[in-house]
Amino acid sequence: MAAAMRLLALLCLLLTTRGEAKGPELTVDAYGDTQTAAAVDRTFCLGQWNGGSWVHDPSISQPYARPLKPKTELERNQMCTAEKDKSWQYTWQQGPDVDERCKLVRPTPHQLCKALANKRLLLIGDSLTMQMVVSLTKLSGTGEEEVDDNLLNTGCAHLTCDTDDKGTQASFTLCKLYAAKMLVEPFPRQEFLGGVCKLPPERKSFFQFVSAEELREYVDAADYVIINEFAWWVGHMHKDLRTCLGARMSAGDASEMAFSAITELYRNQTWTKTAVMEGTQTPVYYRTATPGRPERSQVHGPMDLKAVKAKLFAYGHEHYARYNDIAREAYTARGLNMLELEELMVPRVDGHPKGDAIHYCLPGPPDTFAYVLYSFILPRDSAGNPV
């Protein structure tokens, strides 16, 4: 009941902060650019990473307007970069054949704040999505006290930030929904593989199911929706099923069977959710998954894309490309969008805390999501200024 009330409150916040307009209406000018007098469409840039590379730039200063104030062990681990590898000191060097309008921009806190003003962002995912929520709040200069603890799991925050040095303020709404709280029927609530394996008690209580109508309401109430659930599926879900099957067969067979079952569940959920979201006026993006830190590897900075693909990973992360293909097929078939970041972000296997191959240091690689959001999704004019 408490979880249901929390989701209802989240939807109410989305709806009460939602204005009549969804953002600047786009038209096509005489030069073929999609734009109005103010906004230029740069979504065509997504996925144009060919020929580019990450270059170390020690002149880049720590990007957060306010420092992290860790409340949990995970958040304390995320601060590792500030003292060690400084993984924020890499800049993306665009390939020679990429459209010059597709430059990945690092906005100032004022610029990002202005671009986010009056927007409603809904992010659906796992703990990696949570890191991107933290990154957005820090890069835009929002006040620490405004971010409720629930935002890091499932909830909304109405945030304020400064758009200039004079203290002119703007506000935006940022919502995070945890993947386990947004499962849509049909889904095996109690068991896998015809009753051979049952979900652990802690997982049963952790799941929350929403109707197709509820999911559509969340999506329609937002200005932008960005989804990625990969790490949760191949991490938590695969581990539960693999552990159960391991009592009945070899470890290798258990892992393979568990992966096959989880992949089919993921495929089912992906097609179910995209069918629900089809036709929405809200731009919906699937953020392509990327792997964590490779096993038995010393990583000091970004790694060549081909070298990453040859590595072994923990928690099933080596399957990222297969899961991206499943999402790509479903989202494009339903007329939804892909936030194609494989070539950009797969090389960023650096910037992880010691002993944590999944999460990243902050500031660090997750900040790139905010740069992509600013550069190609949030409206900016022909000169590159936020509108």
From TrEMBL:
Statement: the UniProt record of this protein carries the keyword Protease: no
Keywords per UniProt: Signal
Family indicated by similarity: Belongs to the PC-esterase family. TBL subfamily.
One annotated GO molecular function: O-acetyltransferase activity
Record-given protein name: GDSL/SGNH-like acyl-esterase family found in Pmr5 and Cas1p-domain-containing protein
PANTHER family: PROTEIN TRICHOME BIREFRINGENCE-LIKE 19, PROTEIN TRICHOME BIREFRINGENCE-LIKE 9-RELATED
InterPro entries, sorted: TBL (IPR029962), TBL_C (IPR026057)
One Pfam family in the UniProt entry: PC-Esterase
Taxonomic source organism: Tribonema minus
Record-annotated Trichome birefringence-like C-terminal domain positions: 109-375
